[in-house]
Amino acid sequence: MTAFIIKRLILALFVGIAVSILSFGLVRMTGDVATAIAGEGARDEDIALVRETYGLDRPVIVQYFSWLGGLLKGDLGQSYFFKTDVAGLVFDKIQVTLTLGILSLLFALAISIPLGVVAALKPNSWIDRLALAIAVAGQALPNFFFALLLVMLFSITLRWLPASGTGSWKNYVMPTIALGYYVAPAFMRLIRAGMIETLSSDFIRTARAKGVSRPNVVIRHGLRNALVPVVALAVVQLGYLLGGSVVIETVFALDGLGYLAYQSITHKDLPVMQVVVLILSVLYVLLTLCADVLNAYLDPRLRASM
Amino acid sequence: MKHRLGVALLSAALLFGAAPAVTPALADKASNTIRFAYDQVPENIDPFFNNMRAGVIIAHHVWDTLVYRDPTTNEYKGQLAASWKQIDDKTIEFDLRRGVKFHDGTEFTADDVVFTLNFVSKPENKVTTQANVNWIDRAEKLDTYKVRLVTKETFPAAIEYLAGPVVIHPAKYYEKVGPRGMNEKPIGTGPFKVTSHVIGKSVVLERNADYFKDSPKPQPKVAKVDIRFIPDRQTQIAEVLSGGLDFIMNVPKDQAEQMANAPGFKTVAGETMRIAFLHFNSLPDGPVPAFRDVKVRQAINHAIDKDAIVKNLVGGGSRALTTPCFFSQFGCTDEGATKYPYDPAKARALLKEAGVSNLSFDFYVYRERSIAEALINYLQAAGIKANLRFMQYAAMRDQMRTNKAALGFQTWGSFSVNDVSASTPVYFGGSSDDISHDKEIQGLLKTGDSSVDPAVRKDAYKKALTLITERAYTVPLYSVPTYYVSSDALTFKAYPDELPRFWEMTWK
Predict the structure, then answer these.
(1) Do A151 and B235 touch (CB under 8 A)?
(2) In total, how many domains does chain A have?
(3) What is the pTM assigned to this prediction?
(4) Which residue spans traverse the membrane (chain B) (predicted)?
(5) Nearest residue on chain B to A156, judged by CA atoms?
(6) CATH no. of B36-214+225-231
(7) For chain A, what is the mean pLDDT?
(8) Which residues of A are less than 8 Å from B2 in CB distance?
(9) Which CATH architecture fits B272-481?
(10) Over the stretch B292-347, which tens digit does the pLDDT of each residue have?
(11) Which member of A46, A163, A267 has the closest CB to residue B242?
């Protein structure tokens, strides 16, 4: 087990490095970074100044290693654009993104567990079809579009919720729904399938035969077993939610890491972009690791294979 | 895609569902606050350290300049300077206004002007847009309220720059905190003071109750301006519709038109100094040899119906151009310029005369895609095949400057400087954006840029513009409009420099 975790942590490190090299290279392929930073209308002298100031006149490989060197010393660098420490900038925003990610996950679970269970209890009934329709809609609707529909209803027509901003809890309601709805179908399908499988297994039949009440069978015996894979999926989906918040945070001008990622891409703010990509990819790898460990913990059968 | 869906959605909202529910956004009339959003964040709100429109807007509200240009008459008036005098080609002396105070209570004197100008003109201090300040040689204090400014070369547009990007900072404070501190806690003399700045998110301006009475900017009527940075246009519109914002600008035309029909809101189309034009690479080693022939370039000029483009596509607040400059800029004229009326038959005839058939090339574009597509159709009708290469500005600029692109769809905003020296010479004066390298034109533009005699300047620019159009190095297209959307109850006026003036806005 320990060896497995160490192996995965080393893998996380390599993924982080690979991702940072990729993002470093991709940004440079979209055109001259200095010209982009200097902006439209910048003259040669402005661009030259940007190039010199940020050391963009050095070979790409040197730039990369100097960034990596700083990172190893704990220096995340200075934002080209905001001219402040990247560490401070990222620290401020990551809390918003974590809050949004966790809220969305809870929202997704809150709608998918009951729907999945009900669908499994009455497979192929109208309620199962309804649950399926909700799932298909969730997967098919691009989340920014769904976000706009929410804005139309809750901000423009009803005027209950602010259309954008980070000021209060109200600002989190629509982003949570928009982001959570998108991942809910995966849970719903998994729970439905797991429940159907569990409910038809021998021990359930035995439990029923013993006269255990129906809700007790469904919840204590059925759901508990069907939830095992959900826990792992939830952890992985949290990684997706944190990374996937770029669009939603931008649409709602929610001042989190995703919004910062968007801003850094528009402004070619390499130091910020690098750090955001690195954080998100490492988080993703770590969450996947967590999911594997959790799985092993919850299901002893899996431990043998590690 | 996202944009189109958003438009469809908002149109639906306006036309069917939401419109009846929308009530006039009077929300902040009560608190006498204007809530404004902009899509781009200035990296530093110290005006010398950003090149964003939002930065320019904040600059003119929080700080003052030595000189003020009246946006209606284009006449220069004293602002922090009571008066000024051109001593010789390179020297101007300013008598400063007395009794002006910075937001922190310190008094404005010659020391502030001298420190600011000397600080920003030093290249090592790395002002973002060097052209705004690199013409300044030095500033000297003559007495507490008198300053001498010396320029490096003869620089006739000095007053225009001193009325635009060159704001005056409080010397002692700026010396202590530098641009970074100025960003965190800005202090100026302007009609509004910054009471809150959350980096990357919002700036709150409050009326400066002690604003000096003699300023050509009137005393503000609104108490507060709440500026938020919202990158997504749909979100901005949703905020306006839901009563969360009172004023937005740069709204895409289709959405602005929808908003014009919504009760409680208004749309204002304003012409801007930004000009759109096609730029030919006619260099001897350019990528498309045919463009070296003036007849081919003239043919393309004749092939495009810019009046129809303005009328049908660009819309209100725009006009067709004959010369590559904005009409109000000093020295800009279409007098004597060659006009190319829309005439596809003539375009074909000119191509035939030039011995060119099956002309095909890549057409580089970075914005106004729908208009670029219309241009391609016009060219197609004249038997010319232009292949759209749509890319980011930085990438297109690389292609243009490295002699790889033959035809670019350019736009240029002149930094809102009302002088031709800020527009035409950028593309025809011999810089790296000049892809015609016409020595005669370069010489004329140089004369215009470096004389302080207005008559000499006007004459030189006129001759240069005549030659540029005669030799058809460009297809001047139109002035780019911008659309403002606001609550019906807010009174404001749009100006070509794209600067909303919150100090003169009022609630009805």
Answers:
(1) yes
(2) 2
(3) 0.80
(4) none
(5) B242
(6) 3.40.190.10
(7) 85
(8) 144
(9) Roll (3.10)
(10) 999 999 999 999 999 999 999 998 889 999 999 999 999 999 999 999 999 999 99
(11) A163
